[in-house]
């Protein structure tokens, strides 16, 4: 496993915390759905520009892409709406712990069953212990937030 990717993903995760922190005030200022649309639209524009100015242009054939693979766009928008609604109420830290718990539990199932064409990965004691710690983080964060 490359330590570079681990570090890179940790920084990407930090970016999600920034996004959650930004979305609450933006949603209060322009409305929850407009905040979601602006975040998704700006991201789309940036990615389009990166794709346009990189030399390896690909000819996409949208009709050849299985439709189920495009659900990620819907899920991403749903995620941003939930961040916009939840963060002002439960805080950035609690929102991110909840996101992490959801991601880890679903990721275990995806790895174990090999869904979406990923290589199957067995569940071992170390991974179970990690899931227990994530569960404890959710519990302790919740208890800390309500006290």
Automatic annotation (TrEMBL):
- Which spans are transmembrane here? 33-53, 65-86, 92-116, 128-146
User: What is this protein called in UniProt?
Assistant: DMT family transporter
Q: Please give the superkingdom of this protein's source.
A: Bacteria
The species this protein belongs to is Photobacterium toruni
Pfam families in alphabetical order: DMT_YdcZ
Provide this UniProt record's keywords sorted from A to Z: Membrane, Transmembrane, Transmembrane helix
